[in-house]
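Step 1: inspect the first sequence and its tokens.
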Amino acid sequence: MRVAIIHYWLVGMRGGEKVIEALCRLYPQADIFTHVYVPSAISDTINAHRVETSFISKLPRAAKSYKSYLPLMPMALEQLDLRGYDLIISSESGPSKGVIPPAGALHVCYCHSPMRYIWNMFHDYRDRSGTLTKLLMPPISHYLRTWDAISATRVHRFAANSRTVAQRLQTYYRRDATVIYPPVDVQAFAPVRRDEVEDYYLMVGELVAYKRPDLAVEAFNRSGKTLVIVGGGEMLARIKAMAASNVIVLGPQPFERLRHLYARCRALIFPGEEDFGIVPVECMASGRPVIAYGRGGATETVIEGETGTFFMRQTSDDILAACDRCETLDLDPLDIATKAGRFSTVRFDDHMRRFIASSLALQSGPEWDVAIASEEYLPVA
């Protein structure tokens, strides 16, 4: 079986690229198609596959300014030649599902989210844009929404990385989806003894506006409690400038340092709304609780009173109140880590195999729209 994996761009290793790694292990014969490819920023697992790029990669400064070419990406996708492939797996968050599948091929889409900047977060992105972008966004986004909704009809079956995203697929495309949580390498993390836990809170992730690092800094500036922030991104300089002396902004850190910080923090602060959110699962796999905004994927991974707690409004008062509640909880690090095992790579591999196998089996049958793959968690190994 010839397999093509379509991904929006390969310029770094984040959650979407971890899914591509898992798909590469499931389908070692697969070819990969993408808009822009930076091999030095991508793992050996992905680099071992043949990677073909769209014409976007040939445009000026594409490796860094690829998002500027978003209006051209629908046309670029439709020019990719997928003749001869039997199975097409698109990984959707930026535009990737809009390829033209050959007749007879099965096209399944693993959706991290419909494009946020034209759908659920359009107004947020527009508000943060410069004057020219604010003027251009409405007409360009209108065109992209029309194409995006039409291109959803080229997908035979959708899988979503959370129930949150499955609801968006129903809202924007009127399509059902099977929920398959993304792979998290939970075995790479481990709890430490209670007496090794230190007196600091932790925030981890790319420092961009929708993740609300500014809110976390504002809260801890007020409280005087220690907050350690790990991550780079467009807001790094701003976050450093607004941080008081008790807020330590480390920037990007190597994995071993991150692993150490996860296992010894009092709790992880997760102030933004995510589609799924791998960071909370990594922290829980380290035996530490999560204090999260009660919207989005965190509501599907964090268990109130067992692996952490929620705050329901994005205010510094609510974050600090949630920190106080969390400190009163008697949580067992081993129990927290065990519950994080529900999101392992083994579970993802098993569910993805069954989803694709059932799709292939049903492709020509009368029960095509029946969801076969289970959304239940696998037993913890």
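Step 2: inspect the second sequence and its tokens, then contrast the two.
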Amino acid sequence: MKRTLYLKFLIAYLLFGIFGFIMVATFVSNMTFEHCKREKAESLYAEATQIANTYAADLYNAETSLDTVHRQLSALSAYMAGAKIWIVNPSGRLVLDSSKIISQNEEIIVDGFDPTVTAGSYYTIGTFWGCFTEDNMSVFAPITANYKVQAYVVIHLPISQIRKNADGYLNISYLMLVVMFLLSLIILIFFTELVYIPLRRITQATEQYASGNMDYEFSVESEDEMGYLAASLSYMAGEIARQEDDQKKFVANVSHDFRSPLTSIRGYLSAMLDGTIPPEMHEKYLGIVLNETERLTKLTNGLLTLNNLNARGMLLERADFDINQVIRNTAASFEMTCLEKKIAIELVLTDDKMLVNADLSKIQQVLYNLLDNAIKFSHHDSVIKIETTEKRRKVFVSVKDSGIGIPKEDQKMVFERFYKSDASRGKDKKGTGLGLSIVKEIIKAHGENINCISTYGVGTEFIFSIPKAASMDSDEEV
């Protein structure tokens, strides 16, 4: 049987009630009885002492009669809830009993009477040497006259009466226990609503995700840790689902981009072998095959580059270099391509020399990919602008074209692997869709950011940041 957290909490709640009842019935019961016994003994001793110093003392000083004292003690006995008041002389003879009248001829002796039985206390518990059928609390107070103990005032109270009083207090303890037990239900209710139900939903969601159902939806309307845990779990599942989709798209795109050139290569080679393409045309189609192999090589290199960039612990060969000179060199490498499309590259560079601290080869690749994209999607007779600006100890590099632009709904996906917008597919037949992904990973590895700003039909601008060299800050301070 599966023991749930709620069942464990419920068992703990019931155990709390059971052990609470046992504690009240035993430990608290004994404590209450002992407290009542001590309290009643102190009260009776005070009464006995008061009687010994007043009524009984007057009796032995011949200042009042025995009948008068009997009436007074009977009244006190009634006031003390049925307690019996005796006057006993040292030999054990009963002189006065508040519960009845003793005739002068009647002699009642308490056999074995010993006032020292209290052993330093002022009360004893028992049948008072067989005078009662049930246990009584008996309190002694000496009556002194002429500097001599003449007799003792003894007050008897049944133990059952004391226990009855203690049970009254104990009933209050039971009532308080019941009230606490009921009030603690509030904790159980809060636990159920705020912890168990949300946790059960999270557990069910986890089981669904573990079984592969990443589309399972659930929600926990809470702003505490449970709500945060549910939101984190939901986000994690969404990310896993997205990564699975990306993996499927990745495999599909890789398969597609590899299959197309391989199909072309196989088709042209088969056609040359079976004579469909005459020998005099072989050179032309071998050139096409060579272009397709270059496309496969470019695609493979792009995948390897991305894999290396994504590897944990990638090392960057950081050094100080002039970003302006790197931009000039990269722009010069596209001179022939720009002449063919009649595209001009405008350089707006801050200062003649701008030192940055980064990996030179990787930043060169970023600039190459961005400029290659800009030329590829620019119109004939247009201008591409490369600009550097300095702000807050960083250098911002902008590559802006006036080409076809990127639709707004596609802009957030331009850095994804193999992504090609519908508007670019007609122009980028040889592209792999990995260039911007590589750019993103390189800039991310440097701890910097790259942003895309584009208006469809107007043009696109990519802006990335790199840290300024520390030596440049020192020169400025000088």
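Step 3: confirm your contrast with the notes below.
The first strand starts at residue 84 and ends at 88. The chain has three domains: 5-165, 225-310, 318-477.
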